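sanity check this record:

:::
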Amino acid sequence: MSNAESNSGKPQTFWDHLEELRGCILRMLAAAAAAAAAAFGFKEELFGIVLAPADPGFITYRILGAEPFKFQLINTGLTEQFMIHLKTALAAGLLIASPYILYLLFRFVSPALYDNERRYSVSITLWAYAMFLMGVAVNYFVVFPLTVRFLGTYQVSAAVMNMLSISSYMDTLLGMSLVMGAVFEIPVISWLLARFGLLKARWMSHYRRHAIIVILILAAVITPTSDMFTMLIVSLPIWLLYEASIMIVRITEKKQ
């Protein structure tokens, strides 16, 4: 089916496509706004989830048997808490509405695809979305809690008390979640490149040492601090993703 036809097979003009795109964007914005409004209204539940990694009873610390710790989150601006509430609700709204947003995007693009391209597009989109969510989950349950515990309890002297601003906490959580979600797309990108013959497993294995150096540099760039502990926590899942990508590329080559 060509890109000049709608889902019903009827030819469309440029203005028809533009009108359809406008409607698609408006529906996406409406869905995100509705989800964000709902998240904004459930403030206690929302921040119960968001602030959980700062609690010594968080599941990650219990599994690791970490010693109890304590630090204080503070507010330093008159409008800061309201703006953080708003920003967090918007991020939660986008995450909640993301399946519907992806559906609208695919429905808009699918008329321009052939049947085999449509099947591949569905698989790629679902895998990419699942990997992004997995990256966000790994950050929330592993990377961010360990980072918070280390940096939140680190002291140069017992006379210096740690008081972290809520703004710094939220910016770090949202930023690292986005970055880890993007990093977890490495296997999907590797699979695509292998499908097109642009990436070989033997190349990735041969340049493994170089890749580790690049991973460490990347981890140093994307971590919110310059300490070695946080950098290693971030670099470990990236390295595991690289190793998994080698296996995915090797399997793809054998199938082809």
